[in-house]
Amino acid sequence: MIPRRRIDLGLADLTDLWHALGESRDAATAQVRQFETEAASCLGGIPVRATASGRDALDLILDALGIGAGDEIVIPAYTLGELVTRLLGRGLRPVAADIDTGSFCVTPETVARAITPRTRAVIALHVFGAPCDMAGLLDVAGRHGLPVIEDCAHAFGATIGDRPAGSMGAAALFSLEVAKPVATFGGGLLATRDPVLLARAADTLDRRAYASAAVMRKALLKSVEELAVRSPAYAIAARMMFREHQAGGFERLYRGLHDRVRPDHVAFSGFQARRGRRRLHALDTRNHRLNGLWRQLAEALPPRLLPQRRELYGQPAAYNFVARYEGDLVRLRRRAQAAGLDLAIHGEVLDNVAPLLGQTDCPGAASVYAQAVGIPLHLGVGDRQRVRIAEILGEAAGQ
Ligand SMILES: Cc1ncc(COP(=O)(O)O)c(C=O)c1O
Predict the structure, then answer these.
(1) Which residues are near ligand 1 (CB < 6 Å)?
(2) Which residue CA neighbors atom 3 of ligand 1 most closely?
(3) pTM for the whole structure
(4) Which atom of ligand 1 lies nearest, measured to the CA of 176?
(5) Could you tell me the domains of the chain?
(6) Sequence-ordered list of residues with C-beta below 8 angstroms from that of 268, at least 6 positions apart, any chain
(7) pLDDT in tens, 318-329
(8) Most exposed residue of 34, 47, 125, 245, measured as fewest CB within 10 angstroms of its CB?
């Protein structure tokens, strides 16, 4: 079975773990500072701080901007559902802006419609690494005096003109979760040129406890999971886990379990920093290789599978190949599974959060959610697998 995701694991990860085991707090902090410096330089020199996760970086940004209970915040209707829970947990009122069904991103028009006198910020997501219309969004938000927070969870290495994604808004969050472009077994980054915002976030971050044991436990669990995904038994497990009548059910369970082993509000560890530095050095090569694979797959898709339009506003980072299927998605997935291809559908790809907020005015997100197919895009897909993916999709979508 060609699996939907794969984690890059190697001998160097074991060496990192070994180094980190006996490391003093000072040595770990030096590694983290070095990682932040190198990440900042990849992002065009914008100052960054490493955080416990992408959502932690978002919390820190909101705290620093003084956005709290009762305030409205415009978010994309097509995003990670857990973010809504997190925002509601802070007493905020998220308002979903609809997306364009080609790029899967919010537009200046949909954001303008979602802004009210109570709005305090706009979150702009570069979905699956594809830059959104930042110039247009900054213009709309600017007219209302609102900060734009760039959600770069998927977009490390994407560029807009000559600027890295994450350098154009008031602040940006990045996720360093296991399948992301820079993956450190969890963790995140906060990037901002605003010295006051940065100082406020740093004040919280510098008082955090180290919990490297929790990070290592998570790394170990993910490594075991990866071995399982690479084993022949995965084909049977995938068919059991991802069945039509439980579409999204297993994914929710998986994400819930994941959240339990996710260290929150802890300091970024020396182990993560070492791995992060290696992933940063490999970032351009990774994005180049996977963007090439993305294009080859897109060219080979059967006509009823429409890939995301992702080069409308800049150069994307490689994270997930998502297409819309104008047919019976469940049947497509069943046929692909039988032929050895693991496809993600609906909420296994990303969430339509408008219904969670009681909104019925986001038809674009509803339609993309209903038609979304995630096709494997990772370093485990070589030429042979790529050709096989195209063949299987052609057959599965053809009848
Ligand atoms: C769109 C989006 N934003 C934010 C996040 C949060 O990142 P993290 O999982 O590191 O908290 C994610 C995670 O996948 C995401 O998909």
Answers:
(1) 53-55, 79-80, 83, 125, 151, 153, 175, 177, 188
(2) 153
(3) 0.95
(4) 10
(5) 1-399 (3.40.640.10)
(6) 32, 35, 50, 51, 52, 184, 187
(7) 999 999 999 999
(8) 245
